[in-house]
Write a structure and sequence with these properties.
Two copies of one chain form a homodimer. Chain A has about 375 residues and is an alpha+beta fold. Chain A folds into three domains: about 90 residues, 3-Layer(aba) Sandwich (Rossmann fold), CATH 3.40.50.20; about 60 residues, Dna Ligase, domain 1 (2-Layer Sandwich), CATH 3.30.1490.20; about 170 residues, ATP-grasp fold, B domain (D-amino Acid Aminotransferase, Chain A, domain 1). The first copy, chain A, is built from eleven helices and 17 strands. In chain A, strands 9, 10, 11, 12, 13, 14, 15, 16 and 17 form a nine-stranded antiparallel sheet that branches. In chain A, strands 3-2-1-4 form a four-stranded parallel sheet, with helices on both faces. In chain A, strands 5-8-6-7 form a four-stranded antiparallel sheet, with helices on both faces. The first copy, chain A, is globular and about 60 Å long. Chain A starts with 12 loop residues before the first strand and ends with a strand. At the A-B interface, helix 1, helix 11 and strand 16 of A face helix 1, helix 11 and strand 16 of B.
Chain lengths: ~375, ~375
């Protein structure tokens, strides 16, 4: 078995669970630093696999696939938070460190555990109640108020697996709408806007946080990020402090995406975090000397983190579904920095690419 | 046979002859725009192959390898100028456009043809004489003066295949030193510094030129590029005009690297050009929104060129041979943007990576 010593020397192989656009951009960043990548994905046409030295085309819970990934890689990371916990355990049993670690993944995979963790670290979040059956909803509504947001405890992304509960009379129907899975009911956050912080923690414990982005979602899917968000300085400092606290308490290695609500008056609440590079951090690809993908690779490889200061303000627009068909106009626009993910099939709402537009930094 | 229509749609495959660091950085740029790459290289561990969707491990003159590359690719480009002309013809016979075209390659491959081409387009260059045998050297020296620089007409890079001739008594020995190949003798250029222009021409005939870089060579190998070079405005304009004239006269598609000498008083002479992305353009990777690699992919794919204005000044330092072993210090330096090429073997003078350091633009 190969010994892993950090920092990893260039030429080492970094394993990536997942083969989508985040894995693809991780692989491109790794290549810049002289690393090779090994991608494990159940999809034969995984976008990340087409820019990686090694490809293991297997299910996430396939023991042989995981053994092959472990054999190839010095360290393993992942590009999405629904990697089976058993896969991570198996890789660790095979002697391969996985970053971010199992605890970060476990907390991020269960919305109730995540909310309790926020409470534990003193990060303000919305009031919530665990929901095991439709019968739990009415009593919870009395405490949380209506309407409230019902979400499956596990899985679900881009607004999938969640629904608004208008009142106690809607309890049965709402529970059915999310597939009658174990759930969480969340009080409505009276937010004026959505923010996020992309931050990283290295193996040396040092933290680098990018300035917060302001985000706009449509139908539960990110449409637009603007960064750096125009914020009161203390709001920005609080946002970064929440991210730093989270990273420290999870003994985290890698990049995290922390989604926040800003309430009237600048008060912040944490919504959720993703233990991976994040769509709201794509602005860093063209606005920072070291983008979130290189930062993640640096952390995972045990390298010192790079600077997280931007040299430009960026407006990032996602290209969803058929919008990627606008590539001829975007290619001709001198102000549009285009990223396309190499996905062969378009579907409504599917993230096919994004566009970064740069502006001078203020102040 | 696949029809090639320009502009190529994302998802198309771009073929690359050659698998070194230039091919690797081309493949990374292509991935950003949603293209896949097919790399043909005789080296099994080619750095570019490890970030490409397809790899044809074959010699450049292998008919089956070339047929496979043609089958995979919508268009083919190359990352070095010593690709056999027959390989390009073969790909074109198979219906695959090759960019830059056969004429650019033919001119760049023969130093005498190149110098004659410079004369033809009115670009000032050093006096020269074709040398077929050692007997041609003494009479040429009378016209060109001594010492003069003897170079093989073909092949040779990074100072290989060239030698100074101190005087007529050195003729026999000098010719032997370069392997007694057909050669060119060049008058010594009384330059005060070396400059280069990286420029691109699209399939629509439009040209984008980056501001010139100032370059320093050691032992015939590029050590340092600083860009934008501090130049008299008219010198910069002349440099770009020389590059533009060259691109137009060759009906060129892609990025070219044009090396120039600046004489006392700001007068310019063209030294040579490389029909490809160029080491003296690596500064654009961190100093421009659209770097030379994306620019080349845009041109080859028939996309509009992007802007070539820098947002930062850059000092680019090559990491040669064992210098790449300094990666721990470079990784820890917040001002060092590191690029490592994924080469598994180090050799003295071998280009293993480079470092870009950014500074604010002047003016």
């Amino acid at each position: 078995m190969r010994e892993t010593g950090f920092p990893l020397a260039p030429g080492a192989v970094i394993g990536i669970l997942g083969g989508g656009q985040l894995g693809r951009m991780l692989a491109l960043a790794a290549a810049r630093l002289g690393f090779d990548c090994a991608v494990l994905s159940p999809r034969a046409d995984a976008p990340a696999a087409r820019v990686a030295a090694h490809f293991v085309n297997a299910a996430y819970d396939d023991p042989e696939g995981l053994a092959e990934l472990a054999r190839l890689s010095a360290v393993v990371t992942y590009e999405f938070e629904n990697v089976p916990a058993a896969a991570v355990s198996r890789l660790e049993t095979l002697g391969r460190p996985v970053a971010p670690g199992a605890r970060a993944l476990a907390v991020a995979q269960d919305r109730v555990a995540e909310k309790r963790f926020f409470e534990e670290i003193g990060a303000p979040t919305v009031a919530f109640a665990p929901i095991a059956s439709a019968d739990d909803i009415a009593p919870a509504l009395e405490r949380l108020g209506a309407p409230a947001l019902l979400k499956t405890r596990r899985e679900g992304y881009d607004g999938k697996g969640q629904t608004w509960v208008s009142g106690p009379e809607d309890a049965e129907a709402a529970f059915a709408r999310i597939g009658a899975h174990p759930a969480i009911l969340e009080a409505r956050a009276p937010f004026v806007r959505e923010l996020s912080v992309i931050a990283a923690r290295g193996r040396d414990g040092r933290i680098a946080a990018y300035p917060p982005a302001e985000n706009r979602h449509e139908n539960g899917i990110l449409r637009l990020s603007t960064a750096p968000a125009e914020l009161a300085p203390e709001t920005g400092a609080t946002a970064r402090a929440i991210a730093a606290g989270l990273l420290e308490r999870l003994d985290y290695v890698g990049v995290v995406g922390v989604e926040l609500f800003e309430l009237a008056g600048g008060r912040l609440m944490v919504n959720e975090f993703a233990p991976r590079v994040h769509n709201t951090g794509h602005w860093t690809l063209d606005g920072c000397e070291v983008d979130q993908f290189e930062q993640h690779i640096r952390a995972v490889a045990g390298w010192p983190l790079g600077p997280a200061e931007p040299f430009a303000a960026v407006e990032m627009t996602n290209l969803l579904g058929a919008e990627a068909g606008d590539w001829p106009a975007l290619a001709a626009d001198p102000a549009a920095r285009l990223w396309l993910y190499g996905k062969h099939e378009t579907a409504p709402g599917r993230k096919m690419g994004h566009v970064n537009r740069l502006r001078p930094l203020k102040g």
